[in-house]
Amino acid sequence: MAPIFLPYQQRWAADHTQVKIWEKSRRIGASYGEAAAAVLHAAAAERGGDVYYISYNKDMTASFVRDCGTWAGAFQTAMGTAGERVLTRDDGRDIHVFDIPCASGHHIQAFSNNPRNLRSKGRPGDWVVVDEAAFVDDLADMLKAAMAVTMWGGHVHLMSTHNGDDNPFNGLIQDVRAGRYPYSIHRTTLDDALVDGLYQRICQVTEQPWSLLAQAQWRADLIRRYRPNEDEELLVIPAQGGGTYLPRTLIEACMPAAADSGPLLRFSGDAAFNAAPERTRAGVIADWLKDQCDPVLSALDGTRRHVAGMDFARSGDMTAIVLLELGATLQRTWRALIELHNVPFAQQRQVLHHALDHLPRFAGAALDAGGNGAQLAEETAERFGRLRVQQLKFTEGIYRDAFPRYKAGLEDRTTTLIRHDDVLEDHRAVQLVRGVPKVPDGKTDARGQRHGDSAIAGLLADMAADRPGAPLAWEAVPRGAARHRADWDDPRRAADDTLRELY
User: Are the CB atoms for 463 and 392 separated by under 8 Å?
Assistant: First the structure.
């Protein structure tokens, strides 16, 4: 027998985060599943509580109440008949209130639009459910009142399709992704729902035969009916998404004075360099590292942790490596940007590994593992440890989740870049593409050599800083046993053994 709820409904119901947000496609059964959860919660005498449901119109509110009645019958839950009354707000608008009493002593109260008396709610276990949150009046003000329920262990659930990229609902989601709030986010597009069996359930309910071909035709017809709003209504992409993601004023504010800025260290390989034997190229790079990089690496603060991010390119763009210091106050400071243009793979590995070898308290790195970068990322993970080196192939989801956190660091001035025009232009190249911040296809500089490279390297370094370093490992040995090892004459082994004895 098929489960009653589809997987995305199950994941939402199983999430017990105090504040959870669901950005979703239209008509995928989110409210229907929430009605079932509301009935079970209100019916529980000991661990339950009141449920306050808020929508932006009477029809949605009435539909939710009907769904609650259906589920009460299915669960054989003792619930009274819903009573309706109409309240008038200060601005003259009517609010329809449905009250469903439960045998447990709890109530399900469903409101149309923003109730003014929400601040008086908030007993232990209460829920506030806001449906189509992007369309309610003054979401920010309502949330301030709703958060009171969390003080006594209550929960706030927000569900909605999008209503523009400048809507408070989308702004809240971006703040959560930036790490400003400890809320959980669920995202279900039409295609996600289809993978989880939405159309199969539709066919089951409407008694139609299901086939993959029929599902594809149904999807195509639905997309056509929703045009030109299919992205927002069905694919969870806020409308009007476009334009520069990181303004010039924001980027420049995070650049120190020239005297305090870390350097940009650049090496470009010409035709003669690339044609030379590998041993010759290695010698050239070794000299460049000694002359240009080692003075910078040796001047780094040995008491601070450091991470790195690398955006890989072979010839068309720049390989960019950001060396990032994690300050005592958690400030993230670019200490250097290394750029390589038209440099063979072996010498890129030579530069990267030299830099990581000399980073004080090296805590981790995040490397671009897409395309040609995959081999170098894998070799680096083998060399420095897979727990410390992240191998990332960029997807739309990574951009969507990581860039808001990176932008928040710039907005809060907790990230310091280096002062250079190329870094400015790379960051200004990040655009909102169908609601997702990313560097669009094509070159981003007049010379045709860049593709937002340092911005991506900075994003990767920021992701490395967010991930804890590799855990320390230890091995217990009997006291005194180390002194009888055959390799006692190796001073490094001797130090290791002595530490084991002491601790």
Answer: yes
Euclidean distance between CA atoms 320 and 366, whole angstroms? 12
CB atoms < 10 A from the CB of 73, how many?
11
pLDDT of residue 472: 43
Q: Answer yes or no: are the C-beta atoms of 126 and 151 closer than 8 Å.
A: no
User: Measured between alpha carbons, how far is 404 from 294 in angstroms, rounded to an integer?
Assistant: 34
Q: What pTM was estimated for this model as a whole?
A: 0.74
In this structure, the strands spanning 332-341 and 264-268 are parallel
C-beta of residue 37 within 8 angstroms of C-beta of residue 108: no
pLDDT for res 491? 43
CA distance 160 to 86: 25
Position 502 scores a pLDDT of: 36
Report the pLDDT value the prediction gives residue 117, as an integer from 0 to 100: 57
| Neighbouring-strand partners of residue 35 | none
**Other CB atoms within 10 A of residue 169 CB:** 25
Cα–Cα distance, 373 to 370 (Å, whole number): 5
Indicate the fold that domain 7-234 takes in CATH. Answer: Rossmann fold (3.40.50)
What CA–CA distance (Å, rounded) separates 410 from 253?
8
Q: What are phi and psi of 218, to 5 degrees?
A: -60, -45
Cα distance between residue 339 and residue 337, in whole Å: 6
How many degrees, rounded to 5, is the angle at CA 5 between CA 201 and CA 184?
Answer: 125
As a whole number of angstroms, the distance between CA 353 and CA 418 comes to 22
Q: What does the pLDDT read at residue 166?
A: 83
How many residues are there in the chain? Answer: 503
Cβ-contact 100, 107 below 8 angstroms: yes
User: Domain limits of the chain?
Assistant: 7-234, 248-466, 474-503
Alpha carbon distance 369, 375 (integer Å): 7
Write out the two tokens for 347: 């010498």
Contact in structure between 215 and 194 (CB atoms under 8 Å):
yes
Give me the average pLDDT of each 10-residue run along the chain (503 residues): 88 97 96 96 91 89 92 84 70 76 92 66 86 89 85 93 90 93 97 97 96 97 92 90 81 95 96 95 97 97 97 88 96 97 96 97 96 95 95 93 95 96 92 86 63 94 84 49 41 42 37
pLDDT at 91: 58
Peptide bond into 344 cis (omega under 30): no
Q: How far apart are CA 433 and CA 436, in angstroms?
A: 5
CA distance 3 to 198: 12
CATH code assigned to 248-466:
3.30.420.240
